[in-house]
Amino acid sequence: MDMSMLSSGLAQYLCVVVVITFHEFGHAWMASKCGDDTARREGRVTLNPIAHIDPIGTVLIPFMALWLTMGGQGNLAGLMIGWGRPVPVNPFNLRHRVRDDILVSMAGPAMNVALSILAIVVWRAGLAVRSEPIASSAFMMIWLSMFLFFFNLIPVPPLDGSHVMKHLVQMPDETFWAISRYGFFIVILLLQIPGVKVGLAKLTYGSFIVLRWLVGF
What we know:
The protein is an all-alpha fold. 71% of the residues lie in helices and 0% in strands.
C-alpha cells in the first residue's frame, strides 16, 4: 500500500467533510435568519460535522472513491459525488417565500466562497513558512470548495442553482419536486459530458486566480 497516497486521500476526505459542513451550515443559518427555525430545532445551525454527515454521501461514497483511487481505478472514482445531509427547510415559514428561498439556497455556495478565502490565506501562510502539508491541504480545500460552489449552481433540482431557476421560470412546486427525484441521475449523466467537466474545472481554477488576486497574492 502506498502510504503517501493513503495519507493524501485521507487529507482529501477530511477536506470534503469540512467543505460539506460549511456548505450545509450556510443553508441552516440563513434559513434561521429568514424565519424558519426547522433546521435550528434539529441542531443543524452548527459547524459540528456530525450534524451534517450523511452515512451514504459523506461516508460510504467518498471512502469508496478513495478505495478505487488507491486501487488504480481513478476513472470510476471520478463518477462518485459526495454530499451532506440535506438541511430541512419549511418554505411556509419563510418571511418572503421567493426571496428567502433564493437566499437560503445561495447561502451554501456563498459559504464555500468564504471558506475558500480563508483557505487561500492559510495556503499563502503555508508557502511562507515552507510547510508543504499546510500549503497542499489548504490548496485542496480551495479547489474542493470552489468546485462545490460551481457544481451546486447547476440548475438541476435539487441542486442550489435550481431554486433560482425555479423562480425565474415560475416552475410549479410539484414539477420541481418531481424532477428532484431523478436529479441525482441527471447530474451523473451531465458530468459524463466532457464539456461540463472541463467547464467546471476551468471555472474552479479561474476562481482560484481571482481569489488570489482579491486577497493580494
